[in-house]
Amino acid sequence: MKQMFPGYYERSDEEFKQLWEDCIFTFDANVLLNLYRYTEATREDLLDKFRQLEDRIWLSYQAAYEYQMQRKSVIRKQEKFYEDIKQQLTPKEIKLDFLKGFSRFGVIDEEMLSEKIRTLYEEFQQKITDIVDELAHEGESHSNWLQTDTIRDELDTLFADKVGSFYSADRLNEIYQIGEARYQQEQPPGYKDTDKSTTKKYGDLLLWFQIIDYAKDSKKSIVLITDDRKEDWWQVEGGKTLGPRPELIQEIFHKASVQFYMYTSDRFLQYATEYLNLKSADTSIEEIEEVAEQDKVLLKHNTLTPWVYQNDWLKQEREYEITRKLQEFLEWRNNQIHGVTFSNNQENELFNKIQEFSEWRDNQIANIAFSSAQENNILHKMQEFNVWQDQHLNEIDIFTQQADLILKQMEDFRTSQDQRSRNIAAASAQESEALKRMRELDEEQAQLLSDVGSFAILPDIESLNTANEDTESDND
Question: Which residues form the domain of 58?
Answer without folding.
Answer: 6-93+144-286
